[in-house]
Design a protein that fits this description.
Elements: H1 6-17, E1 23-24, E2 36-50, E3 53-67, H2 70-85, E4 90-100, E5 105-117, E6 122-124
Parallel strand pairs: 1-2
Antiparallel strand pairs: 2-3, 3-5, 4-5, 5-6
């Protein structure tokens, strides 16, 4: 059995998304290289335990693309959806769609969820 921490899950997600482009864990300022993926707000919800050890958890994490145009951010978001889908992540809720006045960039993204099975050390899709 393996207990996956929020930090480990975040690192794993960053590793998958950074293959698509520049990433950061906090909101960028205008000196950053755009487009950039902002990854954060990780949360773990323990669904099942065995002898006080989490064996089944649900993780959620936010991924937003900041880009010069809304269309560019949307295309990067679509690419991210396809890449994370291979690992059973699914986007939930309404998309994040904001124009940032400070950086003059468009933000587009979503919150993702995936189940983690500590017995098999695997990410499983949400049914």
């Amino acid at each position: 059995m393996y207990e996956l921490s929020e930090a480990e899950f975040t690192k794993y997600t960053v590793k998958q998304v950074e293959q698509l482009g520049n990433t950061t864990l906090s909101n960028p300022d205008s000196s950053e290289q755009f487009p950039i993926a902002v990854i954060g707000n990780t949360m773990r919800n323990i669904l099942k335990t065995e002898n006080n050890i989490p064996i089944y958890s649900r993780f959620s994490i936010t991924v937003e693309w900041w880009a010069n145009s809304k269309y560019e951010a949307m295309e990067l978001f679509d690419t991210t959806n396809k890449a994370l889908r291979e690992y059973n992540y699914i986007p939930i809720g309404s998309p994040i769609d904001i124009y940032d006045e400070i950086t003059k960039k468009h933000r587009y993204g979503s919150r993702y969820e995936v189940n983690y099975n500590g017995l098999t050390n695997s990410l499983e899709r949400i049914l």
